[in-house]
Amino acid sequence: MTSLELSELSLQIKNWAQELGFAQLGITDTDLKAEEPKLQQWLDNGYHGEMSYMANHGMMRARPHELHPGTIRVLSARMDYLPPEAGFASNLSNPNLGYISRYAGGRDYHKLIRKQLKKLGDRIVAHCQQIGVTGIDFRPFVDSAPVLERPLAEKAGLGWTGKHSLLLNPDAGSWFFLGEVLINLPLPIDIPLNQSCKTCVACIKSCPTNAILDNNVVDGRRCISYLTIELQGAIPEEFRRAIGNRIYGCDDCQLVCPINAKAPLTQQADFHIRNQLIQPELLTLFAWSEKQFLSLTEGSPIRRIGHKNWLRNIAVALGNAPFNNDIVTALNARKQSDEVDDMVSEHIDWALKQHSQAHAELISRKTQRVVRAIEKGLPRDA
Ligand code: B12
Ligand code: SF4
Ligand code: SF4
Predict the structure, then answer these.
(1) Best exposed site among 73, 139, 281, 302 by fewest CB in 10 Å?
(2) Segments making up each domain of the chain, as ranges
């Protein structure tokens, strides 16, 4: 193809991406050499904790051409997920409700994004065939693939890396997923943005578990997202109070980020929060049997953690809720059920212990500050 044809095709691809529901698409090459020592350092420091998949693929994460041989370009796309009924402040400030990360209240994003990326690749192949170009090969990826998505998106001009390590777009903030198409077409590449967080440190200061180290690196083992989603087994006691009512993931570093003040709502109905997960009562969720859990979370990313870890997380949140006889009764009743193993039982004991002693502070000062920041910075609270 001539360079003019390739330039025209790159514009077409960006339009098609928008038609397919992506907010933006950028194009970059496969060179992530500069990221390799940083990734290695992150792994050497053990910041991946139990996420063995981060170490298993070695440096393939930084070598998209090894992941899919023949690849010379990466089409990096982002899709907004902020749901309309987010209600952050009311949810975080009520310790009797469970807080679920806003990316997870609807349908699992992996399926939708991979499907749309596949359609995009098919359109490119069909277009090339029409103009007599054959041999186009592509592969769509989202999240679970061993590839460094955030650095690729940054190189493709979709935003800069915030101090919380997520990608920030100057117009859209960070409430979006990333996905890629690896392809063997020599399309023209985009230029990275030249912007930064400047002197802001709001996310570092607000992280409930101090997971964001001051050099833009997240110690995964301390992040509530890891502790409530990725970690199998017991949540270390040192983090339980700080977890508050966050029962699946955490959004605090994004909630206090000033760049998110202008973030758009999602255009995908799939990412709207399911009714039973809008401002959910902890006691209601804790009463779900395994069968109910599996059916009510069908098609949702939450299902992946399984019923035991779901109970584990809710037990911690119940331990952080204000004293209430109904909670103590529910905890004691759950302890007797067949669905509870030793690990969950230990979390229930911890929660009961919290109810036997007065909490100095029901909602931590950091969370109170996050709530105030939302009330000030996100006027419509989404
Ligand atoms: C593992 C993982 C996690 C782990 C570890 C997080 C982390 N920051 O690494 C856990 C479970 C904690 C996690 C949590 C979340 N995640 Co996550 N996660 C991933 C995953 C699978 C890999 C990320 C990765 O490669 N980490 C390894 C480290 C080394 O990579 P990195 O942070 O990019 O690190 C770079 C910097 O640390 C820097 N660096 C290292 N050392 C140094 C030193 C200096 C001085 C400097 C300047 C820089 C620097 O270079 C590193 C290498 O490039 C990606 C998907 C993917 N395949 O890429 C999603 C991904 C990053 N996650 C995502 C999301 C949405 C989240 C959550 C918001 C979910 C939630 N609400 O609970 C939280 C946010 C927590 C946070 N602040 O990071 C999105 C982010 C979208 C965006 N806008 O950027 C991604 C891209 C998934 C997707 N497809 O959309 N996640
Ligand atoms: S998601 Fe929560 S715990 Fe993890 S880095 Fe952000 S603020 Fe900290
Ligand atoms: S809160 Fe501030 S430092 Fe953190 S990512 Fe947003 S702009 Fe950057």
Answers:
(1) 281
(2) 3-84+99-183
